[in-house]
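[User] Once you have settled down, look closely at the record that follows, and write a paragraph about the fold.
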Amino acid sequence: MTNNQEWWRGAVIYQVYPRSFFDSNNDGIGDLPGVTAKMDYIASLGVDAIWLSPFFTSPMKDFGYDVSDYCDVDTIFGDMSDFDALIESAHQHGLKVMIDQVLNHSSDQHPWFVESRSNHANAKADWYIWADANSDGTVPNNWLSVFGGPAWHWDSRRKQYYLHNFLDSQPDLNFHNPDVVDALLETVEFWLKRGVDGFRLDTANYYYHDVELRNNPPKEDVVEGSIGVRLDNPYAYQLHLYDKSRPENIGFLQRLRGLLDQYPNTTTVGEVGCDFALETMAAYTQGGDKLHMCYSFDLLTHDSSMTHIRNTMQTIEAGLGDGWPCWSIGNHDVERVATRWGNNHDPIAKSKIYMAMLLTLRGSVCLYQGEELGLPEAELEFDQLVDPFGIAFWPEFKGRDGCRTPLPWKNETLGGFTQNYQPWLPIAESQRALAVDVQDGNRDSVLHAYRDFLHVRRGHPELRFGDIEFLYNDDTTLTFLRSFQGKRLYVAINTSHQDKILPVEQTLTVLTLPEAIPSGYVDHHNTVVLPPYSVLLATVNT
């Protein structure tokens, strides 16, 4: 089995979006004391760690992913003593704490950028990526922003363009400058000394850019995939060879790993949005000298077919070597899985079966708050939106607000999230009926299915650490073996509304699953029978 140094291997990490978790001071915005107040609930799920989305000082143009002070807590979330109390409470509950590190870019209000843009001769003049206009005044090259339009913004003070892969208020830092790298690593160490157990690294493949600023070529096969944008976004039409995923990234990740290795039992998980994400995941996690694990957007698309799941897993396994993946089917950036994959047809049953699928695949797992309740995407009107991404691409893309609405703790008007009549995003009526207090009292609920299945996973090292061998799939059915230390576990998944009957070559002893989880069985013909939206776990007899 793994030692404590590798607690992250096979861990289940619960993502907390603090703005929407619990509002402790009734100002309409969730906060760090709110997370601490609900620590019993998080621990009750049976997860191993918390991932806190950004809580740093920020003008909140991108809701914390635009950092103006890497080493302080924004006042809307509390203060440093509140963070220390959260860490202490989590550790008392046996939970690790990982925090979001947004290193690729800062806010344009960060003192570093304020100084950088002031003139060409200051000490931080090249801490960001500046470039002259073309002779006709146009942008330096064809690079695009994920949030729409060119990735370059004109600054009248310096009379130059600066690079921003996201909002124009999020200028990209220049990792080719060693002083920038040193300063960013100092901010990482600040939180390590504060007691954090690891980091989720935002846009981990974006750190370096091509110094020659070469144009990206067009993408020949434009499909929804691993770069994390929709097909109505022009960003999807370029092959991003020069604006990200550059070879110099490897050296920085090695320096970062060297720092974390000085702090035992810490870890990293990198977000990789890339045209060749699975290959990049492998490269970033192999060898034990870079990131501990990575995740991609490959399971965050609209393709929920078991064919896609198997192809994704087999592709990463083929090139992973000694690397380690991390998987999620939902987060704060994508439509909630109950809607995206539920297709408004048996969303509760589908929430359970996709949970079972995710928790039986090889790798660590990230769960996004509310998935354990089977929350659907909240439907918002245009005038309710606050996400600049959604505002820019409305109505084809409604943005990320629908997955960020406050977590419903009680089935009441304000969802038990706040006593403020106006939370920062409205409490969706469709979500209130799925509140924690409702599901707590229902043994057949999605919440109990998550708790129960996470308990099952903890009891079977094959599911946490074992190898994986795929046996059969069609678009709605998947079977595979998980093997660890001489033990083999057979897993069969049925994501359809019809019975599935599968021949099986192995002799199986079926595990009894808790009542909240629809289970398959083996009949007297040694045939696996999977009722609609069910999972079968069975030990393989030797």
The chain has two domains: 4-106+177-455, 467-540. The mean pLDDT is 95. The radius of gyration is 23 Å.
